[in-house]
Amino acid sequence: MAIKISADYKRAFKQVDIRGEYPSEINEEVTYLVAHSFVAEYQLKKVLVARDMRLSSPALFDAFCKGATDAGANVIDLGLVHTPVLYYASGKMKLAGVMITASHSPKNQNGLKMVLPGAIPLTEEFGLKQIRKRMEKGDFAEPKKRGTVTAKDVKEAYADFVLKTAKTKGMEDLEIVADAGNGMGAVLMPLLDKRLPCTFTTINGTLDGRFPSRGSDPTLKKNQKPVVAALKTGGYDFGISFDGDGDRIAFFDEEGNYVNSAVIGAIISKYLLQKRKGAKIVYTNLTSRILEETIIAAGGVPVPAKVGHAYIKETMRKEDVLFGCEHSGHFYFKEYFYTDSITLTLRYVLEAFALFRTQGGKFSEFVAPYLKYYQAEDVIVDVDNKKKAQAAVEAYLKAKKPVRSRKFDGLYVDFGDVWGSVKISVTEHALKMMFEGTTKKVALALQKEVVDFVKSVAHN
């Protein structure tokens, strides 16, 4: 018999995860039902549960554990960890799991990132829709035996796994400032301190779900002030910054300039392709053109993928891709169960920079060859009807007669000196757009024009 659920949970069920306002869209009741349905749908005997430091995470953790154990599964509590640790545990232990987090979203939100054994993410097309239908029916059979909850700390094993083969020569005197943003990156930093010879100075390293120091998304300029201010004092070789659940990493040169994620992706691609010519590397419509150009120049094969961690991972598995880069600061590795790891990302940047630095070069000089284009900060515009607004902006852009266009994961258009993409957001009720050009002027001009148009049709 169908049950009545108090929260507006349908808004929380997104394309690649469950995420929404707490407690109006996701709350303890919804989380309990999701957990019970997850276990029942996949007949799980064991399930990994991890969480971030958001104020609502303890309550949702308790609710998820109760739902899972009431359905008969034993819970392995991974504790407070950053999201890649869940992926490691799922991949290594071959167990399904969940990360309780709203990732980079604001403090008043929370959510569930669920994976099957091997760190395979659930999406609307693969799992989430079935779980939602099962919980709506409310037909929960009593298990023969209720499950238990057991704590397991895998942080040290995780760090060994990603850093055991690191080439640390030349890192000895590197000074790096890391802005944890009061998020789960703070738990990672002691693990790095123990295993890498460089010196890390952590700022905003106290876990606090209120995000008192800055917003959670480190790729946004307004959230970069703490790390930039630290770099301006001098004495650091470069800086890094994390999002709330520690699956995004942003880089800054020694002067505090933000380094586009595609530049970091290009550096890693070139580094990895030195020994793996012909390997495939993923890019998206929203990553800077420099990434695709670098992949080809370094002897790799660029593979397009839809934006969103679940879609990139799916493409990487299907195409046997070595590495993937997303404009939002996510970096994906075949060697890491085709998932994202900020630690592997930092490791490879450190290894490549250590080699470059033997000749006395600075981080700004290290990234300089990749700064060919200007990419505007991505913009998200809230709309009432995503499909209707997307259709309107696509017609608008096509009428401007681009040199070429591509209908893949939204619409990509190229006008010669400026190009970009507009697509439906997979996590928000909005359109996301990114524009890039040979100059800052042309990129910002087209961006403003398109943003103004989308705003004009947003509520029609």
Automatic annotation (TrEMBL):
InterPro entries: A-D-PHexomutase_a/b/a-I (IPR005844), A-D-PHexomutase_a/b/a-I/II/III (IPR016055), A-D-PHexomutase_a/b/a-II (IPR005845), A-D-PHexomutase_a/b/a-III (IPR005846), A-D-PHexomutase_C_sf (IPR036900), Alpha-D-phosphohexomutase_SF (IPR005841)
Domain Alpha-D-phosphohexomutase alpha/beta/alpha: start-end pairs: 11-141, 157-256, 264-367
Keywords: Isomerase, Magnesium, Metal-binding, Phosphoprotein
GO biological process assignments: carbohydrate metabolic process
Taxonomic superkingdom: Bacteria
Keyword Magnesium: yes
Pfam families given in the database record: PGM_PMM_I (PF02878), PGM_PMM_II (PF02879), PGM_PMM_III (PF02880)
CDD domains according to UniProt: PMM_PGM
Record-level Gene Ontology MF annotations: intramolecular phosphotransferase activity; metal ion binding
Requisite cofactors: Mg(2+)
Family: Belongs to the phosphohexose mutase family.
Protein name per its UniProtKB record: Phosphomannomutase/phosphoglucomutase
Organism: Candidatus Kaiserbacteria bacterium RIFCSPLOWO2_12_FULL_45_26
